[in-house]
Amino acid sequence: MQGLSINTNIDSLFIQRALGIHTREVNKSTERLSTGLRINRPSDDSGGYVYGVKLDSLIRGSSAAQRNINDGISALDTGDTALTTIIDNVQRIREIMVQALGGTPSQAELDGGQIEINNLVAEINDLSANTKYNGNKLLDGTFNINIQNGSGDGDSYALNMTSGSWNGLNIDVSSTGSTSSDIGSLGYQSNKRLDQMSVSINVGNNGGGASTVAASSDLTDLDSMIKNLSTMQASISAKRNRLSSDYNFLTDSKFNFEKAKSNVMDADIATESSRLTVNQVLQQSAVSLLAQANSSPQLALSLIP
User: What is the four-CA torsion angle of 119, 124, 130, 132, rounded to 10 degrees?
Assistant: First the structure.
């Protein structure tokens, strides 16, 4: 049995300890409800805090990778649009040459066709040299970058439109003529330059010299160019589909990371509300009992004669 003493009020000390515990729990629940987080500082849950920071890195890294992928897709779309225009121009050149091979065009018609071809060739050259995205030339053979398409080390994708002979992997629309003004072959296993196509006496044909009509072999070369350009567009589409697939994968991954982070870091509002109510009641009860405990030493005075 506990004796009745004046110097040490055991009941009061015990209730003060309980009151301190309930007050801390009330403060903790209030903090969690106000921030919506179960872990507001490492001391709340050190292991969970470290895991939450790691998940946050993955989430933010995935978001940045998605922005990179969108930039890559935009670059591909820009190159694809330029190639569409180039194909249209080559198709028009072929159409003019078919007309020239009709056998009956006048010299004026041939000259008019040549003028149009010269302008179409110049536009192809401009597109090849000046098609850019964010300052980077796309179709001159120098575009070759690595896109960070994931949140981790080593998550990258090589995106290039490298010039050179077609090998099923790269894009070939650069100039390879003898002078800077010459247009590249653009051909599928062909070395013919567009500025060597002949539809009038004013332009030398493929074999040198002069010609008053277009050579039928030129149509074969143009067909090869069109085939090559369309294959280039197919390659761009394949790369674009790859990046779109990466983007969709990152979207799903971010959802899973967000869900895992929520499970670790977010507060359960229903649980915290119930806990706050319980601890507030206990806190009020402790305050009431503490007042009674503090008055108990006065009982000892009644025993003193």
Answer: 140
